[in-house]
Description:
alpha/beta; about 400 residues
Amino acid sequence: MKKVxxxxxxxxxxxxxxxxYQNYYEGLISKNYYDKFGENLSTYKFKxxxxxxxxxxxxxxxxxxxxxxxxxxxxxxxxxxxxxxxxKNGFQINLIGQGGYKSLVHAANFGAIGKELTGKKVVFVLSxxxxxxxxxxxxxxxxxxxxxxxxxFLFNKDISLTTKQEFSKRIVSITGKKANxxxxxxxxxxxxxxxxxxxxxxxxxLMTPYYRIRYEQLMLKDNINSIKYLKPKLAKYNKTKxxxxxxxxxxxxxxxxxxxxxxxxxxxxxxxxxxxxxRGNLHNIKGSMKKDSYKVSPEYEDFKLLxxxxxxxxxxxLFLNIPVNGKWYDYAGFNKNDxxxxxxKINTMVNSYGFEVADFSKYExxxxxxxxxxxLGWKGWVYVNETIDKYYNxxxx
Length: 397
């Protein structure tokens, strides 16, 4: 009995020490954090609970979650980091996401950031291409998520056991034989969470102290590395709110730029994107997407999981329902009714949770809304920027 008590005390003391060190480093992160870091588009930031949490703590940061559209068009003048830099319109845009990010990755992240997002406005960009039949695979999840995010999700007291079990089942379902050893350890814990039988539940309770210490160690490492990542610190922005943006004027400028940058094709695509990825293979692509569909996909359950996390965590998201390039998809043979059904289904899912959704599906056939088959382009970003600007500033004095 004495050995058991001693063991329990050692665990409590270890967690206590790790927690104290974390608080120390969090203080250093707070001192070194700067507004322009919201424009950072690095994998480390996207996997870091510490850096994203600190961004959420900034009263005038609007966190925006998505995928490859953030990186793909970072040089465009209409990109959010160009439009909302220097605290224009009263807030700093803070982008999180890259290619391979899908609902399950974001769900883990939302759960890990936890209370830092509670009651906060966030923007979430949905991509139709996520909702294919195969869904996210193991490699995509491992490349874009971290152990700390998964443990943070499972140790979040505000998330229900049912949601944790559904999340764990999904993690286990994409487990393969080539998982790295650290993710194998994490998946073992998910496996215990995903089963309701007495043996699994008993093992989960017995193993929780070990995984809790592992989580605290990972968070300490994250905090220490984040300090290094934030140096050198850049100058703070002038937070004076500027005059409101004339969105009609911005749309006109974007159209003028797009006309000169997408004149080598009939699909309204960026010249370079069309030249390097499509032009040489145009004949073979025609009709090649006839068998593709967004009707059935594991992604819908992953998205529902994300919605559940938002509801349980008290997050107030604005979801952006982004269309595909209609002209291109028609050429490639993807059924239009299938696409329209997808847009409607997303709207219905979001509305059923009482969240806001901005439906841009009416721009499917509008030139320059996208810069290729699926990524937001010159005009698309203007429409999106105007929407998130209004969303952030609504109900503000």
